[in-house]
Design brief:
The complex is a heterodimer of chains A (about 170) and B (about 425).
Chain A (H helix, E strand, L loop, with lengths): L8 H5 L1 E3 L1 H17 L12 H13 L2 H17 L7 H19 L5 H26 L9 H22 L3 E3 L1
Antiparallel strand pairs in A: 1-2
Helix pairs in contact in A: 2-3, 3-4, 3-5, 3-7, 4-5, 5-6, 6-7
Chain B lengths: L1 H6 L1 H21 L11 H39 L1 H36 L5 E13 L7 E4 L12 E3 L4 E8 L4 E5 L6 E6 L5 E6 L5 E7 L9 E4 L11 E10 L6 E8 L8 E9 L4 H42 L2 H8 L93
Antiparallel strand pairs in B: 1-2, 1-12, 2-5, 3-4, 3-12, 4-5, 6-7, 6-9, 7-8, 8-11, 9-10, 10-11
Helix pairs in contact in B: 4-5
The chains are: A mainly alpha (about 170), B alpha+beta (about 425).
Chain lengths: ~170, ~425
């Protein structure tokens, strides 16, 4: 009888998802993100695709999968804006990669870790978007509004916690 | 070599992804066109795929939302329909009156514009569209509408609401179009300050506000002033409302310019339905011309009525005056014509004299001089009438009027009795 030995935390807690979940959840996040600000304009501060990117990246614990997930979601998000395609793509690729790398090292099932992680990645996303717009695209009028970005990070964190709990139900342990 | 790729595969994949996207960005921003212009065909194709994937869901949710909301609002509307009908009837009556006044102004303005050879563009055709979604990002203020190239829409067509301008079409797909709102950071529009007629350029900001930042400080520009489109950008027809000035502050980064912040006329954050301007022409559309003619006819009819009423009133007034004139006596006419001879202390004539009655003596209204304080022999009234004097008489008394004797009129003074109090008697020298 073959025996399997777990040599790392990554092998112990690596999860996978049904292909339908992997496809529909990011799509649903993007559609909701496009629909919600219409009746409730203040909800434009939310970044549901970012939350989904972080969730899939930390759950799969594969930096390549995280980066690819982030790139796909970001590019799809860019395609709906008037910005050049790639702005959100680059930001979410980096975030997906870092989130997956962190997921290998720490216990991402813990609530405190999730709160800290979402808050930190939301701020990192704002900084990356600022750098891409200001440095790569050379938009001089693009400013980083710190209070607004902190508010965005807090709101995203508050929304991310129940979404993570909901998406935990779709996990399949390998 | 294999071990290198295996060992660094994560980092290599990340670098490859970032590099590919950076090159893609560089290709997109290399085009020497404005940021608000439509994308290149290849980029537009990617957007089209994304929009095609997302917009069916957006339409589906929009339909469900409308069905639910429509059912509830139909019920509510029926409850208030009678009251609304009465209000609307009243509104129509008010508007008919306003229409006449506006038609006069419009025709006058039209004539003046023709004189000045203005390049005015009138909206001839619009397409009504429903907003089905947003970009979902507050860095990018765009909307998606449910009409596209199949409905005759093209890039750079102006999008408005009855309240004011909303933005312009950026990318147009077969059944969907992307609207770039005027408060997006890449947006711009040529505007005109309504009262001062100063032309300016409007821009969106990163935080979703609309500002004018190409004007220097001017004391004539005040908060509350209306801002209209100037028509100079070849996108928005001239004269559409844009918003009102909210604040005016010096621009610390670009002295001596000011940052004039506007409050948009249209509610950009909650748009349900919009109008896309698909056609303009330099002359008034037929329907508008008919409306204008109707308004003018109403205005002329009202003016004729007002003139007739004025003439009638004037005739009635003249007849009244004539009757009063006829009833006046000759003396009153003279008194009227010589207002300086009026005696304020005289009793007012309440009833006109009967014909044949002698006129009142004019002496009654002759003004009297101020009484003398220290009378002497030269004082008027101190000398007896010439008829009483006898040439060569040995003595005669000269009466002087005392200051206290102020009640006597000068005309009657010479007729005073010699028994009046004498203050001084002159004796001739022997």
């Amino acid at each position: 009888m073959p025996t399997r030995s777990y040599t790392s935390r990554r092998e112990l807690e690596q999860h996978s998802f049904h292909p339908a979940v992997s496809l529909l959840v990011p799509l649903a996040a993007i559609i909701l993100q496009a629909l919600l600000p219409k009746p409730l304009p203040r909800l434009a501060i939310l970044d549901l695709p970012l939350i989904v990117t972080i969730f899939f990246a930390v759950s799969r614990r594969s930096p390549i999968a995280g980066a690819l997930t982030g790139a796909t979601i970001g590019l799809l998000q860019d395609a709906l804006t008037n910005q050049p395609i790639g702005v959100n793509g680059i930001a979410k690729t980096v975030i997906g990669y870092i989130a997956a790398s962190i997921g290998v090292q720490v216990d991402v099932e813990n609530l405190s870790t999730r709160i800290l992680m979402n808050f930190g990645f939301s701020l990192l996303s704002s900084i990356l978007l600022f750098l891409i717009n200001r440095r790569l695209l050379g938009l001089p009028g693009f400013h980083l509004l710190w209070f607004h970005e902190l508010t965005r990070a807090i709101v995203n964190t508050i929304v991310a916690v129940p979404i993570f709990l909901l998406l935990d139900q779709a996990k399949r342990t390998e | 070599m294999d071990s290198f790729f295996v060992r660094y595969k994560n980092s290599l994949v990340l670098i490859a992804l970032l590099l590919a996207q950076t090159i893609g960005l560089a290709v997109q921003v290399r085009r020497p066109v404005a940021a608000s212009a439509p994308d290149a065909p290849s980029v537009s194709l990617v957007r089209y795929w994304a929009v095609s994937a997302v917009s069916p869901f957006e339409r589906f949710f929009l339909t469900i939302g409308h069905t639910l909301r429509g059912g509830w609002s139909n019920y509510l509307d029926l409850r208030h329909v009678r009251q609304q009908n009465a209000e609307l009837q009243q509104q129509i009556a008010d508007m008919r009156v306003q229409q006449a006044a506006i038609a006069q102004d419009a025709i006058q303005g039209h004539r003046l514009q023709a004189l000045l050879n203005f390049q005015q563009h009138y909206v001839t055709s619009t397409v009504a569209a429903q907003v089905i979604g947003t970009s979902g990002s507050d860095f990018s203020r765009v909307l998606y509408i449910d009409k596209g190239a199949a409905d005759g829409l093209k890039s750079d067509q102006a999008v408005i609401t009855p309240d004011g301008i909303v933005g312009k079409l950026r990318d147009v797909f077969p059944h969907t179009a992307q609207v770039l709102l005027i408060n997006d950071q890449t947006s711009g529009a040529g505007v005109l300050l309504a009262s001062t007629r100063i032309r300016a350029i409007l821009r969106g900001t990163t935080n979703g506000r609309i500002v004018i930042n190409n004007l220097t400080a001017d004391s004539r520009i005040k908060p509350g002033e209306t801002v209209l489109t100037s028509g100079g950008d070849q996108v928005y027809p001239r004269g559409l409302p844009v918003g009102t000035i909210e604040t005016i502050a010096p621009d610390p980064d670009h002295q001596p310019y000011t940052t004039i912040q506007l409050h948009p006329a249209a509610n950009l954050s909650q748009l349900e339905e919009v109008l896309v301007i698909t056609g303009t022409q330099p002359t008034l559309p037929l329907q508008a011309q008919q409306d204008l003619n109707l308004g003018l006819a109403t205005a002329e009819a009202q003016a004729a009525q007002a003139q007739a009423a004025q003439a009638q009133a004037a005739a009635a007034r003249a007849a009244d005056l004539k009757a009063i004139e006829d009833a006046k006596s000759a003396a009153e006419i003279v008194a009227d014509r010589l207002p300086s001879l009026h005696d304020n202390s005289a009793p007012a004539a309440t009833t006109p004299n009967a014909p044949g009655t002698p006129a009142a003596p004019l002496s009654a209204v002759v003004p009297r001089p101020t009484p003398t304080l220290h009378p002497d022999r030269y004082t008027p009234g101190s000398t007896p009438p010439a008829a009483d004097l006898t040439p060569g008489a040995a003595n005669h008394s000269i009466t002087t009027q005392t200051p206290s004797d102020t009640t006597n009129s000068p005309a009657s003074a010479p007729q005073k009795s010699p028994k009046s109090p004498t203050t001084n008697t002159a004796q001739p020298n022997p």
